[in-house]
Write a structure and sequence with these properties.
single chain, alpha/beta, OB fold (Dihydrolipoamide Acetyltransferase, E2P), Rossmann fold, 5-stranded mixed barrel, 41% helix, 25% strand
Length: 374
Amino acid sequence: MEVDGRKVYSVRSFNSGVARYLSKLPTLWIEGEVTELRRQQRWASVFFTLKDPNEGATLPVQMPRGQFDALELNLAEGERVHVFGRAELYEQRGELRLKALTIERFGIGAHLAALERLKKTLAAEGLFEESRKRALPRFPRLIGLVTGNDAAAKRDVLTHIVQRFPPANVVVAETYVQGPRAAAAITTAIADLCRRGVDVIVLARGGGSFEDLLPFSDERVVRAVADCAVPIVSAVGHEQDTPLCDLAADVRASTPTAAARLVVPDLAELREQLARTRNDLHRGAKQTAGRSGQRLMSARDRLARAPLLAIERRRGRIDTVHARLGALSPLATLERGYAIVHRGDEVVRSAAQVRAGDAIGVRVAEGAFGATVD
């Protein structure tokens, strides 16, 4: 509008004009530290401030909440990030801010984000499932060791394997364990050891920086560990380090020394166990022989008594039969005062069998006499 010959803009018009001009600017990457991160469940956007760590300059940033949450960055105050977006003006307040289209962690943060994405992908394929884990052989005939040249980890593993189990056979595959060539070299070493017929493989590396251990989280190495034909023990870094190969391995060892304890038994403990077993067998055999001797003595005593017992049993049966026969004998009846009367060879059972004047014989318990029927 015209006021005293001057063209005057309203605040709204001015802000709208600046906003339209800013919208023509290209998208670009901006680096800074995250501060003043603000998000609410009811808000449609997430707000934070990018701060220049050197100069202290700040820039407000706005990003749609759905896009921010989809990145799953879990940003914290002070983290250094790269934000891709374009400048815009919040017309209502005339505030300049950056409308973010995507965010990436800077340096280690970016590596961490990439590893987290790879971890989720491999986990979804089942490479870290407990059901895939295999038990280590009790007495491996040949042990494979993948480690760096002149590494302390190699010395620790070999020393403790020999100390625990001197007869152990170990084949060492020395390879790169850090740097851009390490992942491919480690993968090749694992395959070579499998072709040589090892029963178990130890993947060993001492501690180091985050960047030094990155090859052991390389997708090629993780898949080689998961697909290995024999069980693998991962002993990479210190206990607090967790490269992705640890998750794919059959067993994780906190240190290379611990790995040696896992792959071979302790010979001294085996000898003690054998001694205890031998003593137990000796005591068991002695107890068994003692019980068998007692059974033989008891059997001998039973055999010695058997004839006498048989005679006594037979004598008892004879006496029983004799008593029964005696009870049934006619003589026993005669002893009670009865008599047997017979005429000739015929036993008289009825008075009608005789007539007066017949001669009869009478037998009593003690003797016999003749009589005439009256």
